[in-house]
Each structure stands twice: as C-alpha cells, then as structure tokens.
C-alpha cells in the first residue's frame, strides 16, 4: 500500500477558535470535520504544500506557521503521513472554496468523534495546549 503524505493546517485565531471544514459527501470519510490541507506533491515539502492547499481550499495566504507534530496513520485502504501545522497568522478570510461547509469552533468544543481517527491525538493535544485557566 502506498503511503500518502498530507500537510494539515490548524488555523487558530486570537480567540482560540479553529477553522474547520466538512468533508464532501463523495469523498473518503464523508461528513467528518477536518482541518484544511492536502497531499504533498512531488517537489514540495510539507510547508510548501500547506501554503498551496490553504490558498486553493480556503483562500488564505499563510504568513506564519509552526509544525505541531507529524503522525503516521494506517486506514484499511491507505497509509498516511500527516504533518500538522499551527497556522496563527494569515492574510484573507478563510472560507470553503471547494463546496465544503466551514465554520470556526472554539478549541474546547472540538469533538474527536466528529473528526477522522487520524486527527484524534492532535485534537487531544490542542485541547490540552489551549485550555483556559
């Protein structure tokens, strides 16, 4: 089975809300919420791929990001290497540009059951990192 490399952007604003999109009905894991991103193409590194994907998918220009973690996850039909970046500075207003529903959600309201399994450790980390005192 081929391993697919994915760059993922966790777009977080100053109110600790994260921008998420819902997977389209005809896609793998349809209906789940996700952090925007996509496949790393030949000749790109993960950060370059993320910059391109965020422009295409949600219409923003990423101006600052930092790598949160890299995880490997195996689904029955595919193997993924996921590079999760915190995106805390950008130009433009994010919106679903590929027909997907989008919303801002407070970090504390992230529900692992609404996201693909591969995202669950990251959601746990985000809730810990951005918990309110």
From TrEMBL:
Gene: mutT
Binding site for 8-oxo-dGTP: 23, 28, 34-37, 119
Name recorded for this polypeptide: 8-oxo-dGTP diphosphatase
Protein's GO biological process: DNA repair; DNA replication
UniProt-listed Enzyme Commission number(s): 3.6.1.55
PROSITE patterns from the UniProt entry: NUDIX, NUDIX_BOX
Segments forming a coiled coil: none
CDD domains for this protein: NUDIX_MutT_NudA_like
Amino acids binding Mg(2+): 37, 57
InterPro entries with a match to the protein in the record: Mutator_MutT (IPR003561), MutT-like (IPR047127), Nudix_hydrolase (IPR020476), NUDIX_hydrolase-like_dom_sf (IPR015797), NUDIX_hydrolase_CS (IPR020084), NUDIX_hydrolase_dom (IPR000086)
Family statement: Belongs to the Nudix hydrolase family.
Chain ranges of the Nudix hydrolase domain: 2-129
Uppermost EC category: hydrolase
Domain of life: Bacteria
Cofactors named for this entry: Mg(2+)
Signal peptide span: none
Statement: the UniProt record of this protein carries the keyword Cell division: no
Keywords: DNA damage, DNA repair, DNA replication, Hydrolase, Magnesium, Metal-binding, Mutator protein
Cross-referenced NCBIfam families: mutt (TIGR00586), PRK10776.1 (NF008044)
Catalytic activity reported: 8-oxo-GTP + H2O = 8-oxo-GMP + diphosphate + H(+); 8-oxo-dGTP + H2O = 8-oxo-dGMP + diphosphate + H(+)
GO molecular function, one term: 8-oxo-7,8-dihydrodeoxyguanosine triphosphate pyrophosphatase activity
């Amino acid at each position: 089975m081929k391993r697919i490399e994915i760059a993922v952007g966790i777009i977080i604003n100053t109110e600790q809300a994260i921008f998420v999109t819902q997977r389209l009905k005809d896609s793998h894991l349809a209906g789940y919420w996700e952090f925007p991103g996509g496949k790393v193409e030949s000749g790109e590194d993960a950060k370059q791929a993320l910059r391109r994907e965020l422009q295409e998918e949600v219409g923003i220009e990423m101006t600052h990001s930092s790598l949160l973690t890299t995880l490997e996850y195996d689904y029955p039909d595919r193997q993924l290497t996921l590079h999760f970046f915190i995106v805390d500075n950008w130009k433009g207003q994010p919106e679903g540009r590929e027909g997907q529903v989008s919303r801002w959600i407070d970090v504390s309201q992230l529900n692992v059951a609404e996201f693909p399994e591969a995202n669950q450790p990251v959601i746990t980390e985000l809730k810990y990192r951005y918990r309110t005192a």
